[in-house]
Structures are given as C-alpha cells and as structure tokens.
Write a structure and sequence with these properties.
SH3 type barrels, 11-stranded mixed beta sheet, globular, alpha+beta
C-alpha cells in the first residue's frame, strides 16, 4: 500500500508543471501564478511565499515545460516574446494580447498576435494579425509560413512541425493559430 501511495505521488507530481523565472541579475525563482502585464510592462508572479512585481527591464526569461518567455532588448525597449524557434543568433518569437471589442451592443474578445524574427537586438521581420476571417488577416497569417521558410531554413524540426499545420483545406490559415496559442520552443541544430 505504501509503495502505491508513493507511486501515485510521483505520477501526480509530474503532472503539474512549474514556472522557473530568471531575473536580470541571474536570480532564479520557482514561481506560481505567473502573469504578464503588457500595459504596465511588468511581470507578476508568486515565489517563496511572496508576491513579486518585476519590470520588463529587470526580467530575463521564464520557462514552463517546453515554453520559454524571453525578454529582448530591441532598440531602447524591452519586449517579451515566447520563443518558437532559435537558430544561431536568430529567434522567432510570438506574443499575443487579448482585448474586448464592442460593436453594435455586442462584445467579443479579439486576440492580436505579433510574430517577430529577432537577430542581435533588431527585428528583421515583424507580422501582426488577429484570428479574424477577413481577407487581409488570412493573407497575413499565410505570411507566417513564408517567414519560417525564409529565415529558418536550417531548422528542419520546426519547419516539419509548421508544415503539419499547413493544409490546402484550411483556406483561412486558422490552423496556424494552434502553434501560436501554445508556443513551444524548438531548438535548431
């Protein structure tokens, strides 16, 4: 019975992921209740029994399972992106924000995605779109595939993963949002 309880503990313990936060000075914290506040440019989390509110400038990165949220100093601004792929000194990052949009007495949540190719503190290519089914947004989502092919040719694993989400039957390019909503890092060789 005792071994059954210990086995169940390890199985259940592995089912919960933890977030590890790395601060600018090298400090490493195991966190819970992790929240990014883009409007105030701060990251909020709970670690060691205390609530922390850290400015983007003092934040370095956070990891949860295969997800990596990293700060990039672009020009004089600090921006946070989830890392989708990293090859040499080039990174493909994504960030998304949700906002409530009201029209004619109805309201709905709109998600805006920003995809960026970052190299040496500069954005080589940036793309911004929503999940809207308008022609212009569909075309912008289609450009995501072009960005991957142009800037990450040597990242075979990531290209193969992205190709799984490309379908001739998906005329709205909406399937690609699955990659962006669950941004797992793929390391390139």
């Amino acid at each position: 019975m005792k071994s059954l309880v210990i086995t169940a503990f390890f199985i259940c313990g592995c089912a919960f992921s933890q977030t590890t936060v790395f601060l600018k000075g090298g400090e490493k914290l195991v966190a819970s209740d992790f929240l990014v506040k883009p409007a105030s440019k701060k990251v909020e989390f709970r670690a060691n029994g205390r609530d922390h509110l850290v400015k983007f400038a003092d934040f370095d990165s956070a990891t949860t399972d295969k997800k990596v949220l990293k700060k990039f100093a672009i020009g004089k601004k600090a921006r946070l992106f989830y890392v989708l792929a990293q090859s040499k000194n080039r990174t493909l990052g994504v960030s998304s924000t949700k906002r409530v949009q009201e029209r004619g007495g109805f309201s709905g949540v709109v998600t805006r995605y920003e995809v960026a190719v970052i190299e040496d503190g500069k954005i080589l290519k940036e793309l911004s779109f929503t999940e809207s089914k308008t022609k212009s947004e569909i075309e912008k989502r289609g450009q995501f595939f072009e960005i991957v092919n142009q800037y990450f040719q040597d990242c075979t694993d990531f290209k193969n993963k992205v190709d799984l989400f490309r379908s001739s039957q998906d005329d709205t390019n909406s399937i690609v949002l699955n990659i962006l909503d669950n941004p797992e890092k793929t390391s390139c060789k």
